Here is the input.
Amino acid sequence: MKKLIQRIKALLQRILKRFASNSQQTSPLINSRRLDTSIPSVFPRWESGLVLVCSQCANEQPNSFHPTSRSSTACEDLENWLKSRLKFEGLWGEFRVVSTSCLGVCPQMGITVVVVSNGSHGNSPCLIVNPQSDRELLYSYIKQNKG
Here is the structure.
């Protein structure tokens, strides 16, 4: 009986040792430890927020939004309007507007926009925006979410 207890003890120690070594190798995204890597990093100027405009939404919707010119889509028009508006109001640099590929929402009407700010803590809703009529409303939303 004594040998059996010793063997169980040894087995438990090996299991605990293996568990401890696996828990130290968690992903750097889950664990807040600093990455020990040679990949250079920078801290961008857009500390208040990042506005992601899906460039695929207007392409996937037949006859939903006609481009205002032959060379641009409704997504590009919205993106350019937001950039110029942020520059005009002196908020360019605090916010950055970036086009992105599919965000996976694919609305039947509208363009998907995500405003990621420091205050959102990873909980940023996908907004379905009409690129013509919702511009001012979207801009107000961006200003309200200023980090």
